[in-house]
C-alpha cells in the first residue's frame, strides 16, 4: 500500500475550494486535523510525535490556527525532520520566526498576492480620506444635527485638498504598494516616491513613474502623505516615531495598512495634537484589537478594523494558495520537489541548504 505524505492542518476546516481540496490536495496528501486548543497541549503533542512524520503545516485561515502562539525557538525545534513547508493564509508573518524555520530547511510561504487588490483599495480610500476629511464629514452627518451638518460642510472646504499633484511617499515597495502606486498615480494624479531596502527594477520605476529614495529620512522630508507597507520585525517596530514625524512636513498625512506596531501611536497622537500631522488613517493598530481611545476621539483620524484584505476574494485565494504552495514543495514520498509560489524565507532557507 502506498503511503501518502502527511499534512498537519491547524485551524478551521476549508470553506471555499472544496473541489481543489478533494481532487488535487487530498489525492496527494493524508491531511490530519490538529485537535489541540492551546500551546502547552500542542507542544506535548509534538514531543510525543502524535501526528507522526508530517511533511507540511497547513493553515488556510489566518484568523484560526494560532492557538499555539508564537512559532519560536521553543516550538520550531520540535517539528519533525520530515517537515518541508509551513503554508499559511495571511500576508503577515510576524508571529513566526521564519529565519529559524529556514535554518531548519523548512519553507515558510504566506498568502502574498491574494490580498493585493483589497489592501491597495483600502489604502487608496484612506489616502482620499486624509486629504478630503471624509471621516470628519461622516461623523458630522451621523449626528443628524442640521447645525453640525452645516458647520462641517463649511469647514471641510477650507481644510481639505485634492490629492492630485501631491507627493505620496510609499514605505516598502512590494506587490501591494505597487498596485496602490499605480492606482494613486492614474486615478488621483499623485507623484509617486518610494523607499525600500531593495531598489525596484528600472522598468518598474518607469512604468509607475516612481522616484526611489535611498533613506527613510530623505523621503519623509518631501512627503505630503506617507503610506506604510512594511512587514513587522525588529527593524520596523516603531519605525515611525517622534523623530520620524518631526522630519515630515507640517500638515502632512500618514496612512498605515501594514502592521500597527510599525507606527508608534503615542508619537502619532503627539504629532496630531500639535497639528504637525494634519490627518491619519489606520487599518491596523498597535495594541490590536484594542484601538487607541485618543485616536478614536479625533475627527481627523480614519480608523478601520484591520479589514484591508477583508474581501471574500482574498479569503478564497488565501486558502487556495496555501494548498498550492504545499503541492509545489512536497513530492509523493515527502521529498522536496520545488519551491513555494510565495516564499518568505528564501535567504534563510537557501543559506541552510548550502551548509
UniProtKB/TrEMBL annotation:
One of its GO terms (molecular function) is glyoxylate reductase (NADPH) activity. Keywords: Oxidoreductase. It comes from the Eukaryota. PROSITE patterns: D_2_HYDROXYACID_DH_3. This is D-isomer specific 2-hydroxyacid dehydrogenase NAD-binding domain-containing protein. It holds the Pfam family 2-Hacid_dh_C. The keyword Ubl conjugation does not apply. InterPro entries: D-isomer_2-hydroxyacid_DH, D-isomer_DH_CS, D-isomer_DH_NAD-bd, NAD(P)-bd_dom_sf. One of its GO terms (cellular component) is cytosol. Residues 125-308 form the D-isomer specific 2-hydroxyacid dehydrogenase NAD-binding domain.
Amino acid at each position: 500500500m502506498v503511503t501518502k505524505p502527511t499534512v498537519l492542518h491547524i485551524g478551521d476546516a476549508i470553506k471555499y475550494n472544496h473541489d481543489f481540496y478533494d481532487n488535487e490536495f487530498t489525492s496527494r496528501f493524508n491531511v490530519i486535523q490538529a485537535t489541540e486548543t492551546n500551546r502547552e497541549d500542542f507542544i506535548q503533542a509534538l514531543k510525543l510525535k502524535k501526528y507522526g512524520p508530517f511533511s507540511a503545516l497547513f493553515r488556510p485561515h489566518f484568523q484560526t490556527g494560532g492557538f499555539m502562539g508564537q512559532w519560536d525557538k521553543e516550538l520550531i525545534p520540535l517539528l519533525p525532520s520530515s517537515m518541508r513547508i509551513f503554508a499559511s493564509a495571511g500576508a503577515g508573518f510576524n508571529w513566526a520566526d521564519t529565519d529559524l524555520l529556514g535554518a531548519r530547511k523548512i519553507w515558510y510561504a504566506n498568502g502574498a498576492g491574494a490580498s493585493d487588490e483589497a489592501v491597495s483599495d483600502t489604502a487608496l480610500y484612506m489616502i482620499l480620506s486624509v486629504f478630503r476629511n471624509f471621516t470628519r464629514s461622516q461623523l458630522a452627518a451621523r449626528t443628524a444635527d442640521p447645525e453640525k451638518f452645516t458647520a462641517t460642510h463649511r469647514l471641510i472646504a477650507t481644510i481639505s485638498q485634492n490629492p492630485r499633484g501631491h507627493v505620496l511617499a510609499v514605505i516598502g515597495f512590494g506587490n501591494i504598494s505597487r498596485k496602490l502606486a499605480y492606482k494613486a498615480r492614474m486615478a488621483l494624479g499623485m507623484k509617486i516616491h518610494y523607499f525600500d531596502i531593495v531598489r525596484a527594477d528600472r522598468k518598474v520605476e518607469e512604468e509607475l513613474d516612481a522616484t526611489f529614495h535611498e533613506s527613510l529620512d530623505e523621503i519623509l522630508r518631501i512627503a505630503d502623505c506617507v503610506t506604510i507597507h512594511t512587514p513587522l520585525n525588529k527593524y520596523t517596530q516603531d519605525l515611525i516615531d517622534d523623530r520620524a514625524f518631526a522630519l515630515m512636513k507640517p500638515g502632512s498625512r500618514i496612512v498605515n495598512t501594514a502592521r500597527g506596531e510599525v507606527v508608534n501611536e503615542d508619537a502619532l497622537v503627539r504629532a496630531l495634537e500639535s497639528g504637525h500631522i494634519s490627518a491619519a488613517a489606520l487599518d491596523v493598530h498597535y495594541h490590536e484589537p484594542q484601538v487607541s481611545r485618543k485616536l478614536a476621539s479625533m475627527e481627523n483620524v480614519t480608523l478601520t478594523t484591520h479589514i484591508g484584505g477583508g474581501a471574500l476574494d482574498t479569503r478564497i485565494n488565501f486558502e487556495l494558495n496555501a494548498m498550492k504552495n504545499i503541492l509545489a514543495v512536497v513530492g509523493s514520498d515527502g521529498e522536496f520537489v520545488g519551491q513555494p509560489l510565495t516564499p518568505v524565507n528564501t535567504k534563510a532557507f537557501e543559506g541552510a541548504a548550502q551548509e
